């Protein structure tokens, strides 16, 4: 398991697709901790959250792309 946000990564080990309790706890402590690594992870998570929110707004990139896709499928042409 890996959480890669910006400069820092949190690597986790798992067996057969199941993350063990102590490894999960270690990764959460890093992400939620007050050290530089934890702050960087949270800052980047906030940045991506804000970008996703903007994309979902009316006339945001997701809205525009979804409309273009629907036009292509339903009408057989693009209207940008």
From TrEMBL:
UniProt-listed SUPFAM superfamilies: UDP-Glycosyltransferase/glycogen phosphorylase
Family per similarity comment: Belongs to the UDP-glycosyltransferase family.
PANTHER family, A to Z: GLUCOSYL/GLUCURONOSYL TRANSFERASES (PTHR11926), GLYCOSYLTRANSFERASE (PTHR11926:SF1510)
Name of the protein in its database record: Uncharacterized protein
Organism: Solanum tuberosum (Potato)
């Amino acid at each position: 398991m890996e959480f890669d946000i910006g400069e820092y990564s949190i690597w986790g080990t798992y067996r057969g697709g199941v993350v063990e309790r102590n490894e999960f706890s270690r990764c959460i402590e890093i992400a939620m901790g007050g050290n530089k690594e934890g702050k960087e992870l949270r800052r980047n998570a906030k940045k991506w959250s804000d970008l996703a929110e903007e994309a979902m707004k009316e006339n945001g990139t997701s809205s525009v792309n979804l409309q273009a896709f629907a036009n292509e499928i339903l009408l057989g042409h693009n209207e940008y």
